Structure prediction request, 331 residues.
Amino acid sequence: MSVSTAEGDRVTIESWLSEWDDRSLARDVLNGLTASPKDVPPKHFYDTRGSELFEQICALPEYYPTRAETSILINRSDEIVAFGAGELVELGSGAATKARLLLSAMERAGNLRRYIPIDVSEQVVRAAGNALVDDFAGLSVHGVIGDFERHLERVPRHLPDTPRIVALLGGTIGNFKPDARRELLRGMASLMNSQDRVLLGTDLVKDVAVLEAAYNDAAGVTPEFNKNVLHVINRELDADFDVSAFDHVAFFDHENEWIDIRLRALRAMTVNVRSLDLSVHFDEGEDLRTEISAKFTPARVNDDFAAAGLVVDHKLVDDEGRFALWLARTR
Ligand code: SAH
Ligand code: AVI
Prediction:
């Protein structure tokens, strides 16, 4: 179902999330809480509160990825858009803070035409779109509220003679398991023609203490973000999770080279999810996996790109070698 809202001449927001199907939460909770081990996908973190908490995470001293990626964009956006980019399609755009740097570079090059953010979080897309058209003369914004694993076909067709960047920034690709990651890259490639480029942000494998600190911050914002998914399930599915009865757990899995993020039950309990007519038992110490955050080597990125028919054009790394942006084109 699509609800199309004209915000003004230059902003269009289209929602592809119907009320019942909203973020596929019910299906994911039913499948995830009845699976062994239990899990729930990370896209359900991002209600309004979850998006706010993520913005706070980005400013934490331990959480280096945002600063590292932003420093690359500040220093090298002109180089990134130099192939003539006039349109930016961004998956998981959030507050669009990084998009601004790319849009500014396109404006400097005299090519800026359109921004297409895609995100499940309607409020942030709406706010970002309205602010951007105020700040960039001649820019139009076509926001797609949807799941980028399911709704990429809703991205509008190319504008004539306007090469596009299809971006997935922040290391969000790392929140998907290998199969889903490659599927997502294939979806991104399907939005491109031969003149376009993918722009992918990946966090890099590094010292384990640095990696683990980024997901176990001293101020306790990441635990709050992690537990927010239980508040979302309580509210949306009339469940009765006792949020205080779960601990945040995040550690580096050396074999898979990803941070494994979980909520651990502090006592045995039964949780009722009334909308689904479901009762779920947790043993004391049982984990609910809420997220993985994969860290990358060049080999891992090249293999994933190859599986999606993409080849690297340009690799850009921050001065401290923590984070990489990859510009890739279709083979
Ligand atoms: N790109 C931003 C935000 C990253 S946070 C940055 O680099 O800082 C991840 C964003 O992806 C959130 O805004 C979340 O709402 C969105 N998101 C996560 N899974 C999604 C999905 N399956 N479909 C659409 N948006 C998703
Ligand atoms: C959005 N994503 C790239 C973040 C990450 O680092 O994997 C989400 C996050 N989870 C805990 N802290 C940040």
About this structure: The chain has a mean pLDDT of 95. Residues 37-59+208-294 form one domain. The chain is about 35% helix and 30% strand.
